[in-house]
UniProtKB/TrEMBL annotation:
It is an enzyme of class 2 (transferase). It is found in: Membrane. This is histidine kinase. One of its GO terms (molecular function) is ATP binding. InterPro entries: HAMP_dom, HATPase_C_sf, HATPase_dom, His_kinase_dom, HisK_dim/P_dom, HisK_dim/P_sf, Sig_transdc_His_kin-like_C, TCS_sensor_his_kinase. Residues 221-435 form the Histidine kinase domain. Its EC number is 2.7.13.3. The keyword Transferase applies. Residues 161-213 form the HAMP domain. It comes from Bowmanella denitrificans. Gene3D superfamilies: 1.10.287.130, Histidine kinase-like ATPase, C-terminal domain. The chain crosses the membrane at residues 7-25. It is a multi-pass membrane protein.
Length: 443
């Protein structure tokens, strides 16, 4: 994941380094030009000094410093030369400065003519001295800047961190918001660059709050407007059957249709209430084993009517959970195991726990599912075999979608498989001990 802070620090350091590099090159060139003028002026001064001494006479040698070569010529006669100088002219008898190759290195030469004496005075100085002086000057100027780069990087990092503090505050404010917290964001200090972002986010939150409020009102209105007439239909169909005094195929179809419509309405309302986007868990310590017992007790008339056997194994297992959501999860899993298993079948519910997780397992001896259907059955309104399942049981395809939503609320996982002992469908829900809402067992 890229970091704006790291990017800005590296960018600024790179720019500063590049600027220093070009500044060093410019400084080197400027220093070289100044060193050239300085040493050239020195050569002229030395030449003028020697001429003023009026050195004349036969050819002789001057015990001169080895870092400079000296020659005095009169026409084609060498009058005087330094001990390290050759006996031939070191440069042309033409006034001015030149760069020459002498003794295996480059030299800066000066030829100067004095008309009064008729002397040609020639001097040579190694160019390496000029380079060394220039490098020393540039290094002396650049070294402190190079050594200060780590300190500069630290200061830039602190400055960038301070500059990005409002952005970090905005990020923290968004991260700390709960799923149902749609209040506007308010920062202590909002810079001009972030003001438009904060305004846009607050407008978005306001629209989301209005949309969720409409959904909640819809759920409440649907519960009242749909359940009441369906209850009246149930009562009227029951009274009609009593009045006729006999079973009627059409009347039975009416009863089944009303029951199915009631089931669909209940499942849709449950789906809306358990949607992770606007469902807030009311956490408190709950015993998952006791919840299973209560759920089995409430569903036992349905299980007994199908002459099925159900067993529960496990032990006390405390979860910091929401009673409503866990009851909905258990009701759907156990009810599905009963509805889609044949008469005289078996259902097993077990709770196991370890240091890492708690596992809820619901298995049945029904026909089970093909492996290719394991993912699709969690989709809304999807039913294996279409509108009518091969078992003949009516449904709307929302049960496992609701279970999936609840599993996501608890940061848990759900998987389907083939029951080892019973041969039917096996549904495993795993609650991580590090996941949301888990607490240690208390015995």
């Amino acid at each position: 994941m890229s970091s704006i802070r790291r990017y800005l620090v590296l960018l600024l350091l790179s720019v500063i380094t590049i600027v220093l590099f070009f500044a060093a090159i410019k400084g080197y060139k400027s220093s070289m030009e100044r060193a050239t003028r300085l040493f050239d002026s020195q050569l002229v001064t030395v030449a003028d000094t020697l001429e003023s001494m009026q050195l004349t006479g036969n050819v002789g040698q001057l015990n001169q410093d080895a870092e400079m070569i000296l020659q005095i010529w009169h026409q084609d006669e060498l009058l005087l030369h330094s001990i390290n100088g050759p006996l031939t002219p070191i440069t042309l008898q033409s006034e001015g400065f030149r760069d020459e190759n002498l003794a295996g290195q480059r030299w800066r030469t000066l030829a100067r003519y004095y008309p009064q004496s008729g002397h040609w005075l020639m001097l040579a100085q190694p160019l390496s001295h000029r380079y060394e002086l220039t490098e020393e000057l540039v290094l002396a100027a650049v070294q402190p800047l190079v050594f200060s780069l780590p300190v500069l990087a630290l200061l830039i990092s602190l400055a960038v961190k301070q500059g990005l503090r409002p952005l970090v505050s905005l990020s923290d404010a968004l991260r700390q918001k709960r799923a149902d917290d749609l209040r506007p964001i308010s920062l202590k200090r909002t810079p001009a660059e972030l003001e438009a972002v904060v305004i846009t986010i607050n407008r978005l939150l306001a629209r989301l709050d209005a949309a969720f409020s409409r959904e909640k009102r819809f759920a409440s209105d649907a519960a009242h407007e749909l359940r009441t007439p369906l209850s009246v239909l149930k009562i009227n169909s029951h009274n009609l059957a009593l009045e006729l005094g006999k079973e009627s195929v059409n009347l039975n179809l009416l009863k089944d249709g009303v029951e199915r419509m009631s089931h669909v309405v209940d499942q849709i309302l449950l789906l809306n209430r358990t949607n992770p986007e606007h469902f807030s868990l009311q956490m408190k310590p709950l015993d998952l084993y006791v919840l299973c017992q209560q759920c089995i007790a409430s569903l036992y008339p349905q299980i007994h009517a199908r002459q099925q056997e159900i067993s529960l194994s496990g032990e006390t297992c405390l979860l910091a959970g929401d009673a409503f959501s866990l009851n909905v999860l258990l009701q759907n899993l156990i009810s599905n195991a009963s509805k889609y298993s044949p008469h005289n079948s078996q259902i097993e519910v077990s709770i196991t726990q370890s240091a890492e997780k708690v596992v809820l397992l619901v298995e049945d001896s029904g026909p089970g599912l093909e492996e290719s259907e394991y993912e699709r059955v969690f989709e809304r309104f999807y039913r294996v075999g279409g509108d009518r399942h091969q078992s003949g049981v009516s449904g709307c395809g929302l049960g496992l979608a609701i279970v999936k939503h609840i599993v996501e609320l608890y940061d848990a996982s759900i998987s389907l498989g083939r029951a080892v002992h019973l041969g039917g469908l096996s549904v495993k829900v795993e609650f991580s001990r590090r996941g949301r809402g888990h607490v240690k067992n208390q015995h």
